[in-house]
Design goal:
By secondary structure, the chain is mainly alpha-helical. It is about 45% helix and about 10% strand. Strand 5 and strand 6 form a beta hairpin.
Length: about 525
């Protein structure tokens, strides 16, 4: 049977997904078809909120970490590698990096509901737009913008990591996934969706922070133009630069003064956040990321905010200073805000648990520690917001565009005066300012390290490595497990199509599998 998503949706499910304490909805007692949902305009925003929560789910718990693994930035802890063969394949790129890998299947499966639910919504909304009253039209356009944004984001992630994709098609009361379509077809849909979102979404924030703005669509479309697989014909840094410049000159964003504020759950950092996933410390709106990022050596106290179980750790390249072969320069304030080096807690030394790896007190990811729950709740209840894209990323990408246009000096000045200036508390030492006379190639190398220093553990490293052609070389050099296994190859840039998808979708056969698997 073809893989089909039945259009009859339980409204209770979608409303139930909208469970943030700030966005509660009454539990409905009945189920409705999608046609019935869209017959009443008051039902539509709750439906779209359900899609938002589906997309947010890609950043939750263990599966929220899988895309961070296997890079020159993050690798699994020793105990995880020793006890989870399939999961360890994400770092080793060995025989377990295969179509039957359940971790890879989770990454695939968690994104498709966003695509299919958005497709259902757009089918109804496009019809509604044609006959909308002047009163309803602004709301309907906002709804189309939201659904277009969510679908484009999910498809963008899928195409970057798997290549050619099935395309969703509404057939009567069902959404059917086709066979794998050419990259050009997939990117055309993504580009169209992001353009529609940029046109229809508001410029100014609404009272509901979940609703994306035009700037989020522009930022993600710029990322698509900079990252599109070259064989697609869609990579276009000129178009990306125009979009990024629009955000810089018209969006009203600015870097927050203190980098540390970005990781303080009590601080208002909205001036820098272009789009984020919102969480809190009350289940089911926690993200549990600290459970997987923290150290087992302090988890004997379940309410220690630094605790966790060592799933994803920074590589040595990511946590060491430059003199020791790492990326960090003296005085960079981002280092100690991003990475935990000291595990003393309330005057007590950490206590590594025998048999669970020698890296329990190695440097750990710090960005997801949530001090709001310290001493009161388990670190399982961590719930700081997760950033999809922030203004710092826009500046870094814009500098890349300038460099590729041979405006390297302008790119250098931009980074010195914004990203690096803040990293040294607004007073970047003269000897650490980048030289405006550097070559285009030197800038390309430096900006990759700068992106890691600024954006480490925020989910962009794998895509950065792929789009810049550094995937194999950087990973086999700096990822402990990939280096030990020695099996990473160029074809690993693409995940295998999960075996379960090939079994369920009769439009895809074993012959459609990505090369190398």
């Amino acid at each position: 049977m073809k893989r089909i998503y039945i259009i009859s949706i339980l409204i209770g499910l979608l409303y139930g997904l909208s469970s943030c304490s700030d966005f509660l909805f009454e539990d409905p007692k009945t189920s409705m078809s999608t046609a019935q949902i869209f017959a009443d305009i008051d039902n539509i925003q709750p439906y779209l909120n359900g899609i938002y929560f589906k997309y947010r789910d890609t950043r939750v718990n263990r599966k929220g970490f899988f895309l961070l693994l296997g890079t020159d930035e993050v690798q699994q802890g020793e105990y995880q590698v020793r006890t989870e063969a399939q999961q360890s394949g994400l770092d080793k790129y060995d025989g377990f990096y295969f179509p039957e890998n359940n971790s890879i299947a989770q990454l695939w499966n968690v994104r498709w509901p966003v695509v299919t639910l958005s497709t259902m919504a757009l089918s109804h909304l496009n019809d509604m737009e044609k006959n909308a009253s002047e009163t309803d039209l602004p709301s309907i356009k906002s709804y189309i913008g939201q659904a277009s944004f969510y679908r484009a984001c999910a498809l963008f992630e899928l195409v970057q990591y798997w290549g050619e994709l099935p395309i969703p098609d509404l057939q009567g009361e069902k959404v059917v996934l086709s066979g794998r379509k050419p990259l050009q077809t997939v990117y055309e849909m993504i580009e169209s969706d992001f353009n529609k979102a940029a046109e229809y979404l508001p410029e100014k924030a609404s009272g509901d922070v979940r609703i994306p703005r035009t700037w989020a669509a522009k930022a993600m479309l710029a990322k698509m133009y900079m990252s599109a697989l070259p064989e697609s014909g869609f990579r276009d840094l000129g178009k990306a630069k125009v979009l990024l410049n629009s955000i810089i000159t018209e969006g009203g964003f600015r870097l927050v003064n203190q980098y540390a504020d970005l990781w303080d759950g009590n601080k208002d950092v909205s001036s820098e956040i272009i789009y984020a996933f919102y969480f809190n410390n009350v289940w089911p709106d926690t993200n549990e990321l600290q459970w997987y990022a923290g150290s087992r050596a302090v988890s004997g106290d379940p309410n220690c905010y630094m605790g966790g179980y060592d799933l994803g750790l920074p590589t040595k390249y990511c946590y060491e200073i430059t003199d020791n072969g790492g990326i960090w320069e003296a005085g960079d304030l981002r280092k100690d805000e991003s990475i935990r080096y000291n595990f003393f807690y309330n005057g007590k030394a950490p206590a590594p648990v025998a048999g669970f790896g020698e890296d329990q007190t190695s440097p750990h990811i710090k960005k997801y520690e949530d001090k709001r729950i310290d001493g009161e709740k388990s670190f399982y209840n961590s719930g700081k917001n997760v950033y999809l894209v922030r203004y710092a990323d826009v500046l870094l990408l814009y500098a890349e565009c300038l460099n590729e246009e041979n405006n390297t000096a302008e790119a250098v000045n931009l980074i010195n005066n914004t990203i690096r200036s803040r990293a040294w508390g607004g007073n970047l030492p003269a000897e650490l300012k980048w030289n405006t006379a550097m070559s285009q190639d030197e800038f390309r190398s430096k900006i990759m390290d700068e992106r890691m220093r600024e954006l480490c553990f925020e989910g962009w490293r794998r895509m950065d490595l792929i789009r810049t052609g550094n995937f194999v070389e950087k990973i086999k050099t700096h990822n402990r497990w990939a280096k030990e296994s020695g099996t990473i190859q160029q074809f690993h840039e693409r995940f295998p199509i999960p075996h379960v998808e090939i079994k369920q979708n009769t439009n895809i056969t074993e012959g459609d599998q990505n090369p190398g698997y």
